[in-house]
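Q: How would the structure tokens look for this protein?
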Amino acid sequence: MTVRLSALYAYPLKSGRAVPLNAAEVVRTGLRDDRRWMVVDRRGRFRSQREDPRLGRITPTLHAEQLRLSAPGLPDLDLPRPPTPAREVAVTVWNDPVTAWSCGRSADEWIGRVLGEGHRLVVFPPDGARRVDPAYAHADDRVAFADGYPFHLIGSASLDELNRQLDAPLEMVRFRPNLVASGAAPYAEDGWTRIRIGEVAFRVAKPCARCVVPTLHPDTLEAGPEPLRTLNRTRKRGGNVLFGQNLLHDGVGTLRVGDDVTVLDTP
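A: Here is the predicted structure in token form.
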């Protein structure tokens, strides 16, 4: 059985739309451009589609020297990539205090036109360092603005198995993975503890507990009962609905669609 990386996604703006990639550089915090920009409220607390599905209207596009954000009815917003040093601001991701850089007044005005007055746009500094939950990580593991872990992996056969139980199939992007592995059995990733993708090794930290975001239609942003209704019946463990795995990486390198996925260790 040959398992390969069949899709690769970054989410430059936390809770914005996905950017499919053919190749991506892995840095200390994960994919170079993954969850590097984020919307915060007046208090500096992060915003996500859980509270405001309108974030799903924002489409990021990566260019050589800029990130472009697009939203219906607005001119595009271009931001420097990599970011240039700017005023430091204190923000919060869940319970983690993080030092970010302001993206400036024009960026705040633009995001305010999408989500309402009082929202601001910030960026993770290139040398920023946010620790991963020490209950599952090594002391030197770091992440940017992702919820908790640098990488999220789902097996394509796992989604196929879920879709067989649904009246209407769902797209993989609903679950917002970074890595999609094809060629393994359904839910094979539940039994992996260490893997290698191309030139990068990963530790499987813990299963991904699902929130309401996969219930949002990617185009209309309307919520429906699935997939949580079915997953509550088939994938509930200890009070959480589990689908996919959170990963930590050992070292840096480049990932490419088509790379072999090698299982190095199982429980």
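The longest helix spans residues 105-115.

The two ends are 19 Å apart (CA to CA).

Upvote if useful.
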